[in-house]
């Protein structure tokens, strides 16, 4: 049966990642922090699915909500409203600082970023968009045009007016101060000097993640976001923050931007909002929404304001609030990062440990002094981890080593984190040999 499964997969599935490879396991079910394979293996999931299942797989409260909603109110005409939709919009607004008060509920991160960029262009009357050179914002048109980490080759010209700026990377700094540390202010000045030289004076928006996940778990330095916002506003643009992976408690705060005290003009949420189900949101101010509406804002989709996933979103907020998972993410994140730093003391191939809360990056290198990238080591360690019962995700970009994105569920136990650390330790040791 396994042979026929993989034969059918090869014959009938479109390969949708550049590598063209699927995890070589048939997954039968998932529960909590583990996924279970057809041959009876149990894999500890250190990625929360696609960085989304923040409550673990098949959380009882989510299961109950899905069963109830599927039996009573699943999908409606897009112009109809239901209580779960309005309740979720109100609760999201209440969880955020002023003036973020207006909510549009969609399905995916790409879709929410698409809507945010579309709104920014309409409201400002401009068309230029800035994002990081290692950004990932989605695969739909505007989101893909603002994505630079991969996927740009072979699809013809991108939309005019898209600009990449250098990504602040404290481990591999391009602009340095007298101590050899990243001089992010000078880097940011250079970025906007370069943008100004190319711009036609029509900046609509800058879209960034507070922590670049697909870019290698790169946390923006404290203070960076405020200066970036000011430079964008000086040029008449809006600041869009993509918190697909960082929103809703994963970093130890409800929203990652809270650390910096910088409120975006438009916020997008996705992955974590549905805890594994397709739910996303665009959140903005009354003023921006009003202007967009007056100018005919249109983002009418089949699944806008769907009641079933909105009900799940309300359940996710219930669990996050009742179980105080922001604090738990901070505590578990400190434990995880501490364990990874202990591994770094034993393994020279670990060059850097970074991130916030339960979004942690582990970068592998050949040499700590030169920081020579170790892409093949990352792939080898990933394979060995899977053989030992741990599912890991490694980011491999040019000029960087293999960077593990470690994002366990917020409901993980200390024992599960320790199990993951133990398996990772063994995999690195055996790969070195």
From TrEMBL:
**Record-linked InterPro entries:** Aminotrans_3, Aminotrans_3_PPA_site, PyrdxlP-dep_Trfase, PyrdxlP-dep_Trfase_major, PyrdxlP-dep_Trfase_small
Gene3D superfamilies of this UniProt entry?
Answer: Aspartate Aminotransferase, domain 1 (3.90.1150.10), Type I PLP-dependent aspartate aminotransferase-like (Major domain) (3.40.640.10)
UniProt KW keywords? Aminotransferase, Pyridoxal phosphate, Transferase
Q: Which domain of life is it from?
A: Bacteria
| GO terms of molecular function | transaminase activity
Keyword Membrane present in the record's keywords: the answer is no
**SUPFAM superfamilies from the xrefs?**
PLP-dependent transferases
Task: Family membership, please give it.
Answer: Belongs to the class-III pyridoxal-phosphate-dependent aminotransferase family.
Matching PANTHER family: ALANINE--GLYOXYLATE AMINOTRANSFERASE 2-LIKE, PTHR45688
**Record-given protein name:** Aspartate aminotransferase family protein
What's the source species for this entry? Paractinoplanes ovalisporus
Give the lineage.
Bacteria, Bacillati, Actinomycetota, Actinomycetes, Micromonosporales
């Amino acid at each position: 049966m396994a042979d026929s499964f993989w034969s059918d997969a090869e014959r009938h599935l479109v390969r949708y990642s550049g590598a063209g490879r699927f995890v070589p396991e048939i997954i039968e079910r998932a529960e909590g922090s583990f996924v279970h394979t057809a041959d009876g293996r149990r894999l500890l999931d250190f990625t929360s699915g696609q960085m989304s299942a923040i409550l673990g797989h098949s959380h009882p409260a989510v299961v109950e909500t899905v069963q109830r909603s599927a039996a009573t109110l699943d999908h409606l005409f897009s112009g109809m409203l239901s209580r779960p939709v309005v309740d979720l919009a109100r609760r999201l607004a209440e969880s955020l600082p002023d003036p973020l008060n207006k909510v549009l509920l969609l399905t995916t991160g790409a879709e929410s970023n698409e809507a945010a960029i579309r709104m920014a262009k309409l409201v400002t009357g401009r068309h230029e968009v800035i994002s990081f050179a290692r950004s990932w914002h989605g695969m739909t048109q505007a989101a893909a045009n603002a994505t630079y980490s991969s996927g740009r080759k072979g699809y013809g010209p991108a939309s005019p007016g898209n600009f990449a700026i250098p990504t602040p990377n404290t481990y591999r700094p391009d602009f340095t101060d007298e101590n050899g540390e990243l001089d992010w202010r000078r880097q940011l000045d250079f970025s906007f000097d370069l943008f100004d030289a190319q711009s036609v004076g029509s900046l609509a928006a800058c879209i960034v993640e507070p922590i670049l996940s697909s870019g290698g778990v790169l946390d923006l330095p404290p203070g960076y976001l405020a200066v970036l916002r000011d430079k964008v506003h000086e040029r008449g643009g809006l600041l869009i923050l993509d918190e697909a992976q960082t929103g809703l408690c994963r970093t130890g705060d409800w929203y990652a931007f809270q650390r910096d005290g910088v409120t975006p003009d438009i916020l997008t949420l996705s992955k974590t909002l549905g805890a594994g189900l397709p739910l996303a949101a665009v959140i903005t101010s009354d003023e921006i929404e009003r202007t967009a509406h007056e100018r005919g804002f249109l983002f009418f989709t089949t699944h806008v304001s769907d009641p079933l996933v909105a009900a799940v979103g309300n359940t996710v907020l219930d669990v996050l609030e009742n179980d105080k998972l922001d604090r738990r993410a901070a505590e578990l994140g400190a434990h995880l990062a501490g364990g990874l730093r202990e591994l770094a003391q034993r393994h020279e191939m670990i060059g850097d440990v970074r991130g916030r809360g339960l979004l942690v990056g582990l970068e592998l290198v050949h040499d700590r002094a030169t920081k020579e990238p170790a892409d093949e080591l990352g792939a080898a360690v990933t394979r060995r981890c899977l053989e030992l019962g741990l599912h890991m995700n490694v980011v491999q970009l040019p000029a960087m080593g293999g960077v593990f994105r470690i994002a366990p569920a917020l409901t993980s136990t200390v024992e599960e984190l320790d199990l993951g650390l133990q398996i990772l330790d063994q995999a690195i040791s055996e790969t070195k040999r």
